[in-house]
Amino acid sequence: MTIKWEEITDDRSNNLERVLKLYDSAFPIDIREPHHILYKGLEYAENNTPNRFRMLVGLKNDVPVSFATGHYLADVNCGFIVYLGTDPNERSKGLGSQTLAQLEEALNKDAILASNHPINAFILETERVELAKTDAEKEDCRKRDRFYQKNGYVQLKDIDYVQPPLNGGNKAIPLKLLIKNSGKMDLTKTAREVIYSMYNHKYHAVNDIPLEVLNHCLQKMNISEAFQKVK
Question: N or C, which terminus of the chain has less Cβ within 10 Å?
Fold first, then answer.
């Protein structure tokens, strides 16, 4: 499969609307962010801040068939993979792994641009099998687990991770946190700093989630003593 890769850096891209349609079809409404959050992320795509946003699209015959979004977190020198999706008609062909690798490469370039060493680790959130409501959802979770394990990601088990609410309210969402460690990071010492950075630079700066909601989520993970408040 021949794929052409394109980075979307502003809302004038000809492919942005088509990527958003693919995004809407790839994720149920309860786990996807509103479009305006993705637009706000693009403000961090081409600017001088080291905490950059990436939106990549894979094109087959000039038609979007995959996409990925992520943030580079300069203070912990990590990449936060947010969304990864493929056209259902193009799955099981290695496209997901190709797309993930392209995003990892882009985020590693951000580390170099920020005058850091090659990236310490990549982080992503995914659903817990035990909380799936149907057999079909459980099998989807297992497929995602196998996919990420194949691509070098393992579960961080020391913290009972929760995601802040994406669509209002204050109810934390229990998820798993997966890590692809380059070998340079001692996760037992720095996992809390990574989560704090995710909350600070993604969920507060981009999603505009209130500080009290974020601090409630931090407290649920028993890391409020390490981070008294999100700045």
Answer: C
- 183 is a domain residue: yes
pLDDT in tens, 14-55: 899 999 999 999 888 878 899 999 999 999 987 767 899 999
In this model, does residue 186 exceed pLDDT 80? no
* In a domain? residue 14: yes
CA distances from 77 to 66, 84, 119, 159, 190 (A): 26, 21, 6, 20, 11
Helix axes 135-150, 95-113, angle to 10 degrees: 50
Asked if residue 231 belongs to a domain, the reply is no
- For the chain, the domain total comes to 1
CA distance 8 to 64: 12
**Whole-structure pTM value:** 0.92
Q: Does residue 58 belong to any structural domain of this protein? A: yes
